[in-house]
Amino acid sequence: MYKSIFIPLSSHGDQLPALIFGALLAEAFDAEAECSFTTKSLLLLEDEQSTKIGEMYSKQGYVASQELAEKFYQEQFSKRARHVQQWFALSKEKIVSGRRLKWQESMELFGETASQIRDECGYHDLTIASYDLSTSILDDVITGALFATGRPLVLVRSSPQGKDISECTIVLAWKFTPQAIRAQWLALPLLKKAGKVLVVRVDEGEETVSPSELKKLTANLKRHGVNAHLHTISNVKSPAAALEQYYTEQKADLMVMGAYSHSRLREMVLGGFTRHFLNSRICNLMLAH
After folding, report:
1. What is the pLDDT of residues 157-175, one digit of tens each?
2. Among 49, 202, 235, 245, which is most buried by a count of CB atoms within 10 Å?
3. Backbone dihedral region of 175: left (phi > 0), alpha (psi from -120 to 50 degrees) or beta?
């Protein structure tokens, strides 16, 4: 059950689908979605300001240049935070169940930003983020939500087609791994409320899941009130692209899959599937590790 949702927001890109998705889930689970403008100081400076800081350094030294930089940082942060908060206030009034969206204090990230994001994600049941967050912040969200806290993360490209969860289609990308099993378990509250659940196994030419094992999976889901439909994708050149195409053809609203980690963020996806979807950014993804 999701009672607390965190939605980091940016001052650029399309953030609205993430807000809509958050409001929809918050309404479905009688929860609140806390939204916050999230940025890094180094991303705030404009070219002209950076030039002035460099000139100050040349003329008056490091201390004076840092004082000027801090002044510019605070000006830009306040300006952008105010802009995002105004946009948020206008947007929530137009969103069904927008009353579930709450504004919280903006987050200006310094130093070990992944730890700050980790702490915020760790105190919420679910994090929802737009793919349009800046790359460095999105990296921190993925690292913090998934690999540091074990909380599920939803990455959003487009608004759900249904007005509530009962009108949504969810694709569960199935492979018998600890990550996929955990993703299925963490997504169970969503699966139980979804209008349609499609369990998809992709034949990668490796040891395949037997029909009896798939029946056990659907039987387990059925015990939880989920009437899932099975589908197998086989004999394709690119299994990940085929899965993405299936998602699109089914007009699905969300793909649930396991995420695979390594020591560094850029190496976190070992199997290729998650890497493909994070790079293409076409599907709304719910990831768990």
Report:
1. 999 998 899 999 999 999 8
2. 202
3. beta
From CA 288, how far away is CA 232, in angstroms rounded?
22
Higher confidence at residue 27 or residue 203?
Answer: 27
Alpha carbon 4 to chain centroid distance? Answer: 15
Q: Which candidate, 280, 255, 278, 283, places its Cα nearest to that of 266?
A: 278
Of the candidates 95, 112, 79, the one whose C-alpha atom is nearest the C-alpha of residue 35 is: 95
CA 212 to chain centroid: 33
Closest CA to 221 of 270, 256, 187: 187
What mean pLDDT, rounded, does the chain reach? 87
Residue 185 CA to residue 205 CA, distance in Å, equals: 26
Residue 270 has pLDDT above 50, yes or no: no
Domains with residue ranges and CATH for the chain = 4-42+77-156 (3.40.50.620), 165-288 (3.40.50.620)
Share of the chain above pLDDT 90, in %: 48
Query: Which segments of 95-210 does DSSP mark as H helices, in order?
Result: 113-122, 135-142, 178-186, 188-193
